[in-house]
Fold this sequence. Notes:
Blueprint: E1 13-20, H1 24-35, E2 41-44, E3 67-69, E4 74-76, H2 78-90, E5 95-97, E6 101-106, E7 111-116, E8 120-131, E9 135-137, H3 140-143, E10 146-148, E11 154-156, H4 157-167, E12 175-178, H5 182-193, E13 200-202, H6 212-218, E14 225-227, E15 233-236, E16 243-245, E17 251-253, E18 256-259, E19 263-265, H7 268-272, E20 277-278, E21 283-284, E22 297-299, H8 310-328
Helix pairs in contact: 1-2, 1-8, 4-5
Amino acid sequence: MDKRTNLNLSGRKHARVIIVGAGPAGIGAAVALARKGIRPVVLIDRASNVGGIPALCKKKPGAVPTFVSWLHGRALVGEQFVAGLEARLAETDVEVWLDSLVVEIHAAERRVTVASRAKGKLDISADAVALACGSRERSVAERGWLTGSRPARVFFTKHLFDFIDGNDILPMRRSIIVGSDLVAYSAAAKLSVSGAGQSIVLDRRRRPECNVFQRLYFNFWSRPKWHGSIQEVQVKGLGSVEGVKISDKKVLTCDSIVVSGNLIPNTELALLGGLEVRLPSRLLEIGPGNRLSSPGWFAAGNIRGGFHSAQWCYLSGKKVARSVLKYLA
């Protein structure tokens, strides 16, 4: 699917609605608006394809299905889930701009600045803008309880998906996963089916954040060792990770660390662009109808805060579309 538009790189294009982020939430909003006759709808994403994080999880032998389709009542591999979204998007006339990075937003003017190799740098204004930029995992420094050296082979789960699914590379054999949510146990399962040894999951929590039913589901692929109530993790190693010290007498050896969960919304652009953001949480100020602090701006999906499933994000996008329609009317 390629609906990218040839633009006058020195000019400005006006759209009825701009959606920043082509993950499940952005696609949900774009499809819902297009089906109601709103045009042009411009969907912008820095990646080379739509789908967001689920698109990184490829369908292949041994793949772990972790994306639940409420409509079909079954778990899918991310690539399968995204295929359904792509099919709905292809039935519309939404303009999809891929490999396009939004570098600035201008809240008062409902305008965004986009940069890409294909288009150069240009401004696009709209009657309404929806932010569906998702969230990211907090860095080692942001977590505040991971200390010690900063060697190589400390990854986020996104890197893990890129290595294993995107490039068929298994860069680790003995991993320690920091964090204990559903994504952490999904990562442990992915490592196991790819040929790695048993992972270790550790967290400050007394019990895993991933609930017992979710853990039972992942037991089919892996049963990582659990270490809870960890107050501080000291990373060991100079060139590469060699292990972590979790108490005065206990050191766990590993060849990599996977930093998982503990998400923070991608609201840096919103903050710099004049939208109200609460600090230090970085949560957007969201009013009724998913409206942001400046008229004509809306938020959908995980950028709202918290961890939500891909299906929830898609439905969040559809809900935001209804609010956008009311605003445009």
